[in-house]
Amino acid sequence: MRKPIIAGNWKMNKTREEAVALVTALKPLVKDAACDVVVCVPFTDIPAVAEAVKGSSIHLGAQNVHFAPSGAYTGEISADMLLEAGVEYVIIGHSERRQYFGETDETVNKRTLTALEKGLKPIVCVGETLEERETGKTEQVLERQIKEGLKGIDSIASVIIAYEPIWAIGTGKTATAQQANETIGFIRRTIAENFCPKCAEKIRIQYGGSMNAKNAHELMSMPEIDGGLIGGASLKAEDFAAVVAM
Ligand code: PGA
Description:
41% of the residues lie in helices and 15% in strands. By secondary structure, the chain is of the alpha/beta class. The chain has one domain (5-244): Aldolase class I (TIM Barrel). Strands 1-2-3-4-5-6-7-8 form an 8-stranded parallel beta barrel, surrounded by 5 helices. The structure holds 2-phosphoglycolic acid.
């Protein structure tokens, strides 16, 4: 049995004060959650949110980590810096990072290897564009992202994968539960074939892309879907709690 994991991806939203207000409101609403609950917050919110979630069921995540231990990487952040601040999870290779900040399968791989080596729990994002889906390239793209992005990782079951079709992110267009289930099934088979069948059974694979209180139940009832990476609907305590409750 895989324990579902619902993670909020706040993206570039919430000042420190707003962040504390949000997690303070969220705490009582998710205290009996049957799944793992994570909030992935902007860097400057980390210390305040780490303090605010102490003793609660909410786990803290960041949205990126660099592969080097330190050095001349302006604008980046190291695993040690995140760990020291109380971070447990980290999103890697989100499509917005790939699209706007030149993230590639190779940098995703390096960041993921470092995160695991340091003891952070990586949430590695994969997903196809609309054009790739419409031209029948979805499986080819995902296979490449999985093989290259997770190359050389032995403890593959400690990784969390977020399948986020790019055309569904922030658009209000969700993949149907059937589509998401089939595609996540394909990702799991790819892991079984390229890594190990046992880890494929264990690894948790989330769906992400316009997931909210209305569609979460159907998505979460699918056998292959082990949770969600939630953008827009994670920015209000009641909305996020409603997804967690599914
Ligand atoms: P969305 O974002 O829920 O707003 O579509 C999901 C994500 O990008 O992680």
